[in-house]
Amino acid sequence: MNDLLLWIGRVAGVGGVVLCAVAAVARIIGHYWLGSFQVGTVLQAGMAMMIAGCLGFLALLTERSKADH
Length: 69
Description:
By secondary structure, the protein is mainly α. It has one domain. It is 83% helix and 6% strand. It has helices at 2-28, 39-68; strands at residues 33-34, 37-38. A hairpin with a 2-residue loop joins strand 1 (33-34) and strand 2. Helix 1 packs antiparallel against helix 2.
C-alpha cells in the first residue's frame, strides 16, 4: 500500500507540474485555447493533480507514522 501511495503521489505531482507549465507557456505566447480546452481549464487540472499528489504523500506519511507506533 505504501508503494502505491508513493507512486500515486509522484505521478500525480509530476503530471500536475507538466500541465501547469504547459498552460503557463501557452498563455505567455498568447494562446487562450489548447485543443478544445481553455488554458485556464488546463491550469486547474494541473493544480488538481498536484493536490492529489500531495494527498497521496500525506496518506503515505500517516501510514508510516502509524506503523512506527
